[in-house]
Amino acid sequence: MAAASTEPPRLKQLLERDPYLAPFRTDFQRRYSLFYNRLKNIEESEGGLDKFTKSYKTFGVNQLADGGIYCKEWAPGAEAVFLAGDFNGWNPSSHPYKKLEYGKWELFIPPEDGHSPVPHGSKLKVVIRAQNGALLYRISPWARYVVRDEDKVNYDWVHWNPPQSYIHKNPSPKRLKSLRIYESHVGIASPEGKVASYKNFTYNVLPRIKDLGYNCVQLMAIMEHAYYASFGYQVTSFFAASSRYGTPDDLKEMIDVAHSMGITVLLDVVHSHASKNSEDGLNQFDGTDSCFFHSGYRGNHQLWDSRLFDYANWEVLRFLLSNLRMWIEDYRFDGFRFDGVTSMLYHHHGIGTGFSGDYNEYFGLHVDEDALCYLMLANHMINTLHPECITIAEDVSGMPALCRPVAEGGGGFDYRLAMAIPDKWIQIIKELKDEDWNMGNIVHTLTNRRCEEKYIAYAESHDQALVGDKTLAFRLMDAEMYTNMSVLMPLTPVIDRGIQLHKMIRLITHALGGESYLNFMGNEFGHPEWLDFPRIGNNESYHYARRQFNLTEDDLLRYKFLNAFDRDMNKLEERYGWLASPQAYVSEKHESNKVIAFERAGLIFIFNFHPYQSYVDYRVGIETPGKYKILLDSDAGEYGGHQRLDHNTEYFSEEYPHNYRPNSIMVRKKQVTKVINWHIQLFMVYIPSRVALVLHTMDIPK
């Protein structure tokens, strides 16, 4: 590598783009220096980043070509290390590891008559002799498969080495310009009250995702977690795919089938903390309070009751970077959504801290630059070795440059979640009457993002579906969802309002809120009730740990309308690509009329949020002159609307400037007509109340 540099090669471009960052130049230099020097040390001491991040092939228990077994662990606090299991009658001392430098231990077990001495499916434990002489039976941090018998509390480590592993048949999809993400949880992906399987997701859910127009699935709770109700965020085995849904090969098949459908698959990766479990987790693996984590107070998350990684530790970097590499190369994941990034970035972990946007909040001693350096290394590794992969940061703080390249001094992520958007919709619905909705505030929230950083917009995610919170549909319609969602029942004002606003909120978020869009499974059709996993507090019930996809298949229920609108909204984006287009030009955000109008990707989006006022004489400014037709109408009958618009109508622009646009179209209920070539041509538009319209010029074929 070239001589060390304290300044990112393209920092100048970053500071020119955002001059407010100029006072923090030395912070960017220090951060990049830390990244650069750690990368340089890896290259020089470990034979390169490529070799360093392939450590999952040597650590843990690995099968050799000759049938032998090679084992390696990092346990710096151990006095001795042994391997015990079914293969040696659980003898705790017959297979001792050899002590190496820097707290590493290794063991080679020769083949027996050309066969592995540790059979596939047999149980294992690493036995640690602690400094106090106690023998601790542990699961290897690198274990690939762990299972729990129904009559047991803890998980068991099972050696996974089948005679024939699943072979991927389909290449990964090319990197997408427009991401339409379906956030999913395999275990709840069934109407039945049980833990659903990888097989169920493969053959029943993936076709549904494809039909809905989503091109990316983001999988939660895949990394093994002993506590099901943790939603997968209390990880116990980082290299093991959760066995409660099936085998590793079942997951590989699921991803392969998704790829055959052109669906990108992302993993919700949890590197921000780890479960406190010691019997079947990382905690106290070598008998000490530290090992993978900070010791003492700093190593514990006070709100999550979990352990916090020491990102400055060489072996922690090996472990976490290799973990990412394994999920990409063994399972063929196409990238990651990094959970809990805010907690990683700051020593205060975001606890009791608000973020106003003042840049001083993002620089200084309160920033955990070791954690930030790890994220830079992770993104650098992924971008270098697998440039087709995507990374997403879940950061509520708004850390500047988090989604700019590492070469600019940024964090290297491709996208960040626009976490203010769902909070805004909740606040509006919860606190304001419809007449008091502030159009300017809605537009500001949807468009307020850092320059040239890509955002994933969403109206709601899994957070809003959890027990204790409410989905948009449930906030809008509440108890009437139990009684009035049948088409055989009269359309009540509550259900009518809920259905119309649900569509409008999702479309304006999709079209205006970012460069990607995310939906949590079931929310596309207004899934009723909340999400609650089996636990002592609900008598271990699975009643709310499921997704009732069957509701959309019942022609007598109104859920089908929301489902159809979500599908057609995605299909329209697929056709015109507004997510990959420059940010929208908002020409109108009229407070008293409750109208928002904007242009993006050559389309005109018009939203009338007024609860009762329909406009019969209204002008909307546009950039491109021409003849326009309706492409999407939330008031259409197939979407549960009132069918107040004629979709055969053609609308003509006028060379009449309006709202700083050179042209405009008029909005009138009684449309003015003119005869051209014996055909009736209309250039007026009628916008009913609580309706969203998307128009496109017919002069530009698409």
UniProtKB/TrEMBL annotation:
- Span of the secretion signal? none
Q: Where is the active site?
A: 339 (nucleophile), 394 (proton donor)
Task: List the SMART domains.
Answer: Aamy (SM00642)
InterPro entries cross-referenced by the UniProt entry: A-amylase/branching_C, Branching_enzy, GH, GH13_cat_dom, Glyco_hydro_13_N, Glyco_hydro_b, Ig-like_fold, Ig_E-set
Alphabetized, the UniProt keywords read: Glycosyltransferase, Transferase
What this protein catalyses is: Transfers a segment of a (1->4)-alpha-D-glucan chain to a primary hydroxy group in a similar glucan chain
**GO biological process annotation, one example:** glycogen biosynthetic process
- Enzyme Commission (EC) number: 2.4.1.18
Q: Which residues form the Glycosyl hydrolase family 13 catalytic domain?
A: 192-508
What is the protein's given name? Answer: 1,4-alpha-glucan branching enzyme
Q: Which organism is it from?
A: Taeniopygia guttata (Zebra finch)
Give the gene symbol: GBE1
